[in-house]
Amino acid sequence: MAEAERIIGTPDTPDTPDTPDTPETPGAAEAGPEQSDGGATSDEAVAPRGRRRIAVLFTVAALAYALDLISKLIVVAKLEHHEPIEIVGDWLKFEAIRNAGAAFGFGEAFTIIFTVIAAAVIVVIARLARKLYSLPWAIALGLLLGGALGNLTDRIFRAPGILEGAVVDFIAPKHFAVFNLADSAIVCGGILIVLLSFRGLDPDGTVHKD
């Protein structure tokens, strides 16, 4: 009988060494969440900076768009079908002109194409905003976005029809094309982007050297 009990009890013997190992398992499991928390903390630190840059982009865009829209409403109401207003003698005038072409009056036969391009620029900027961590790039893209929205609004809502509307231009320097504030915002944003590219600064905030 004793021999039978010894044989039956033998399989229980290896279970006894496993008992001391039990406390170590929770300790090992706890290491995982700590590392995960550390990664989440890093991501949480980066996210607010990205959101601030996006806020700057859309604030600049909204300001540029509002100034362009208000200026065009005033020009149409007060200056269209009237004599030009001299600001600096013959060197700078305010003169209301309807422009069916691109910025500065180029390509009047391709109004719809320029409308599609403006819409595409807006979509690209909106998608790029998700990876934006650079303040100068946020300002540059905001200027581009605001200018594109300003002229696109004219293309959609002004005569002669949807997608073929003529843009309101009114800033007329001597010996130069007539333009508006949206054109100015687009040009300034483009120049800033060129300068940032020469410096090697990417929209995500990284700096590279060729």
Number of helices: 6
Q: Compute the gyration radius: what is it? A: 32 Å
How would a crystallographer describe the biggest sheet?
A: 3 strands, antiparallel
Show unreliable segments.
Answer: 1-41
N→C terminal distance: 87 Å
> Roughly what percent helix?
55-70%
Question: What report would you give on this structure?
Answer:
- With 210 residues, this protein is mainly alpha-helical.
- The protein is built from 6 helices and 3 strands.
- A 3-stranded antiparallel beta sheet has the order 1-2-3.
- A hairpin with a 3-residue loop joins β1 and β2.
- The longest helix has 55 residues, at 24-78.
- The chain starts with a helix and ends in an 11-residue tail after the last helix.
Task: Characterize this entry briefly.
The chain is mostly helical and 210 residues long. It has six helices and three strands, in the order αααββααβα.
Q: What labels describe this entry?
A:
210 residues; mainly alpha; 62% helix; 9% strand; disordered N terminus
What's the arrangement of secondary structure elements?
Blueprint: H1 2-9, H2 15-21, H3 24-78, E1 85-88, E2 92-99, H4 111-128, H5 135-157, E3 167-173, H6 181-199
Antiparallel strand pairs: 1-2, 2-3
Helix pairs in contact: 3-5, 4-5, 5-6
